[in-house]
Amino acid sequence: MKMPVGRPSPGMGRTEPAKTWGTSSCICVFSRIRRKLAYEPVPEAAAVSEIELHRKLLGDAPRNAAFQAALKQLVVPGKTTVADIGAGTGFLSFLARRLGAAHCTLIEYSGMLELAQKLARQNGIDQLSFVRGHSAEIRKPPKVDLVVSETLGNFALEEGLLETLIDARRYLKPGGRVLPERLRQFAAPVTAPRLQREIDIWPQVGYGLDLSAARTVSLNNMYVKQVAPDDLGGRDTGQIWDDLDLRPQARAPDSRRSATLRWKAADLPAARIEGFALWWVCELLPGVGLSTSPFAPPTHWDQIYLPLLAPLELAADDVLELMLACDTRPDVGVRLGWKTRQLRAGKTVGEQAQDSFRGRVEM
């Protein structure tokens, strides 16, 4: 589910929506449990925004079908017990019960839990337990066969998916499973100027004002954007920069990870680089998954655009290098750094370094 910025919601980190301008929203900092917030939305506004997010979520047919297909493979009628972390409206638990799950525990931080209870009654769905709170703060969790947590964001990890599923291993019986099982994040150079022009408005404001300080802050942010194939020059040049095995038998991935990607200029559709696009592919089970690739069918999620401080002009034999460093520890929230280098004959001829924490404005 995509919820860019705001106060925590279910599981470890669902959040209220960011303010948006046009089709873009800016990801600056993500709240997590135990983080004090600078503000709290009024309850009425929070309720409206929460249901709007779930309206979009439940209107995402590919997402719903993927989870239904995965649950159908894992639920053994009359036997399987489920913990639904970040349950929201209870939709995934309802699917599991309709498939024959013996019992589902719905864990939800926000007031959506009361709505889930009402929907369960309206649909005659029983064998459900409702727990209000964060999954990580439940000291004696129920032991279940399956943990399901759809806490995916536009930036895949903005809602705490990794930390949620690592902690949720406490909930599993021996041999228990989790959904999803694998997450891969991709990056690709953006060669068309459209996205950068939408964001980098500062030099055009005019009125004799120097807004360069604001521009620097702005360009150190990740932006939620609808990235089209044309923005990538019509060619999928995406490379994997993050590959997470979320299965409980695998070694728990670290919350701090980094990767370096390289593209030869000759392999790119254009010589001018404006920024980078990020997207993800989530494998619920082998053969059952979701993708936010610009080349995949659209979902309710969008992509992420990482701007550059200035465009790069690559010569024919240049190499473009992107170093990404991600930190999603609960006391940090989400921090992403991106460093770009232009290499010519093995030597650096251009370099830019950006960090989402430099894009913060303290309230």
Tally of DSSP helical segments:
7
Rg (C-alpha, Å): 21 Å
SSE order: EEHHEHEHEEHEEHHEEEEEEEEE
The CATH class of the largest domain is: Mainly Beta
Query: In CATH terms, what is the fold-level topology of the largest domain?
Result: Hnrnp arginine n-methyltransferase1
Any low-confidence stretches, pLDDT <50, length ≥5? 2-24, 27-47
Output the structural class. alpha+beta
Describe the secondary structure blueprint for this structure:
Blueprint: E1 20-21, E2 24-27, H1 43-58, H2 61-74, E3 81-85, H3 91-98, E4 103-108, H4 112-122, E5 128-132, E6 144-148, H5 161-167, E7 172-179, E8 182-190, H6 194-199, H7 212-218, E9 222-225, E10 239-245, E11 256-264, E12 272-285, E13 288-291, E14 303-313, E15 319-327, E16 335-344, E17 347-355
Parallel strand pairs: 3-4, 3-6, 4-5, 6-7
Antiparallel strand pairs: 1-2, 2-9, 8-10, 8-12, 9-14, 11-15, 12-13, 12-14, 15-16, 16-17
